[in-house]
Specification:
This protein is mainly alpha-helical. It has one domain: Cytochrome Bc1 Complex, Chain D, domain 2, CATH 1.10.760.10. Helices cover about 55% and strands about 0% of the residues. Bound molecules: heme C.
Length: about 100
């Protein structure tokens, strides 16, 4: 399964024009795979998770959220987030997904 997903991601990288509209969809998959062990990544995300970390819907709802802030959080040099070494493309997809959670 993992290979299939990697293969699909590889294809998406080769076909950026085709994949552009799929950003948020890809981002959701990445979030499920790489972020959901620590964060609640989908709605309903209003209830606080046991580990106290912010849920993605809660992050998305912040009035002062910007793509730059998200990128900084995803590229953690100074905080407790693990370094997941995501590609620029994967980061863009994640950012698109998190913004798509805004109501
Ligand atoms: C191993 C657990 C873990 C994983 C996996 C993880 N995070 Fe986090 N995340 C944290 C922790 C811990 C914090 C709090 C960081 C801090 O306060 O130093 C955090 C904070 C954040 C924040 C900032 C929230 C705020 O309050 O400003 C964002 C955005 C975020 N994570 C996004 C992601 C994304 C996107 C992924 C998947 C690519 C991810 N995280 C995967 C543990 C994790």
């Amino acid at each position: 399964m993992r290979n299939v997903v990697c293969c699909l991601l590889g294809l998406a990288a080769l076909l950026p024009a085709c994949a552009a509209a799929q950003d948020a969809v890809e981002g959701r998959e990445i979030a499920r795979r790489w972020c959901s062990s620590c964060h609640v990544v989908e709605r309903p995300g209003s209830q606080a998770p046991a580990n106290g970390l912010p849920t993605f819907p809660a992050i998305a709802a912040r009035a002062d959220l910007t793509a730059d802030r998200l990128r900084a959080a995803i590229n953690p040099q100074h905080n407790r987030m693990p370094d997941l070494s995501l590609s620029k493309r994967q980061q863009d997809d994640l950012i698109a997904y998190i913004f798509s959670l805004r109501s």
